[in-house]
């Protein structure tokens, strides 16, 4: 029996893999992915279940005239059962895995973002509502991937049934700040024994007219971008000589280039600018757009903060 903490007295182990579970099929998909990742990385796995209580005083939950049929303790008991179920599933997939559970009352966005400050990785499911409905209803996965202090993996519903998957795709913008994103992608490719494709998006008149399209390796006039892309991965590639790497240019907006063929990939890796950066205000939608459009699993990796490094 796995002990499920509902008091907050036992913090989640630092640098563990955290997976959000709510009893849905989407969360089950995330538990499968997280359990495999914890096994590959030999890290502890923490299952987190949250229940969002109505914004009413505790006194309104109990006694005569209660406005809600449950009290906080009942909510936590339900969350505890869900966490137990998810933890049992992880152990079934990988017996011997170091698994713990946490149940909390609170907004899942706030709870998971706070937990992410000391986590190695946060893994979540996604219902695949699409961009418009996510903006209307609010997407927990989009909110957490936008503000988390560590990489966030969003396990989207898989599209393109029967199509052969090509490995891992990572977006490379050619900046020093994107190196953590590139290294994360290489590390995943090494763990999963998959090839890696690094793509740099070039925005020009052709991309504006024809939309996202891969550039032929034989096309001339783009040497400066090819050099930039090569330099982006050179130092990290040498650390992972076992990973086959394909460097490609694409025309179009970065979010379109990374979203156009998502069902063909096992994993998409995209960077996210620091929360308070100017670039975040300008390009902050790239990661969120890729998450919401994707038909495969997406990892959103925080880029380095140049201000902090300076």
Note the topology.
Blueprint: E1 4-5, E2 17-20, H1 25-41, E3 45-51, H2 72-93, E4 99-105, H3 108-116, E5 121-125, H4 131-137, H5 140-147, E6 152-155, E7 168-171, H6 179-192, E8 196-202, H7 205-210, E9 213-214, H8 223-237, E10 245-251, H9 254-259, E11 267-272, H10 278-283, H11 285-293, E12 297-302, H12 306-309
Helix pairs in contact: 1-2, 3-5, 5-11, 6-8
Compact overview of the structure:
The protein is α/β, with parallel strands linked by helices and 310 residues long. The chain contains 12 helices and 12 strands.
Strand order of the largest sheet: 1-4-3-2-5-6-12-11-7-8-10-9
Q: Supply the number of structural domains.
A: 2
Mean pLDDT level: 81
Count the E strands: 12
CATH class of the largest domain: Alpha Beta
Under the CATH scheme, the architecture of the largest domain is 3-Layer(aba) Sandwich
End-to-end Cα distance, whole Å, is 48 Å
* Tally of helical runs: 12
* N-to-C order of helices and strands: EEHEHEHEHHEEHEHEHEHEHHEH
The helix/strand class is alpha/beta
Q: What proportion of the residues is helical, as a percent range?
A: 25-40%
Instruction: Tell me, briefly, the overall form.
Output: elongated
In CATH, what is the homologous superfamily of the largest domain?
A: HUPs
Largest sheet: 12 strands, mixed
Low-confidence stretches: 55-64, 129-138, 277-283
């Amino acid at each position: 029996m796995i002990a499920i903490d509902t008091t907050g007295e036992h913090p989640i182990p630092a640098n563990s893999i955290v997976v959000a579970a709510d009893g849905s099929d989407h969360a089950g998909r995330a538990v499968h992915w997280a359990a495999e990742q914890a096994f590959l990385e030999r890290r502890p796995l923490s299952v987190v279940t949250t229940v969002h209580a109505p914004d009413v005083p505790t006194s309104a939950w109990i006694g005569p005239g209660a406005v809600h049929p449950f009290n906080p303790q009942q909510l936590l008991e339900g969350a505890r059962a869900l966490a137990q179920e998810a933890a049992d599933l992880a152990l079934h997939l990988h017996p011997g895995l170091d698994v713990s559970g946490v149940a909390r009352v609170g907004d899942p966005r706030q709870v998971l973002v706070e937990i992410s400050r000391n986590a190695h990785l946060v893994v979540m499911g996604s219902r695949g509502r699409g961009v418009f409905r996510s903006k209307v209803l609010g997407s927990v996965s989009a909110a957490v991937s936008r503000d988390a202090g560590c990489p966030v993996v969003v396990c989207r519903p898989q599209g393109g049934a029967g199509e052969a998957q090509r490995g891992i795709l990572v977006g490379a913008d050619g900046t020093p700040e994107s190196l953590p994103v590139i290294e994360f992608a290489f590390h995943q490719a090494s763990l999963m024994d998959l090839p890696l494709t690094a793509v740099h998006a070039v925005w020009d008149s052709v991309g504006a007219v024809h939309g996202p399209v891969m550039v032929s390796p034989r096309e001339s006039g783009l040497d400066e971008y090819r050099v930039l892309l090569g330099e982006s991965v050179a130092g990290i590639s040498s650390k992972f000589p076992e990973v086959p790497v394909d460097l490609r240019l694409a025309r179009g907006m970065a979010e379109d280039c990374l979203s156009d063929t998502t069902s063909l990939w096992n994993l998409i890796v995209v960077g996210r600018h620091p929360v308070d950066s100017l670039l975040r205000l300008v390009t902050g939608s790239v990661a969120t757009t890729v998450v919401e459009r994707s038909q495969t699993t997406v990892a959103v990796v925080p880029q380095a903060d140049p201000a902090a490094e300076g």
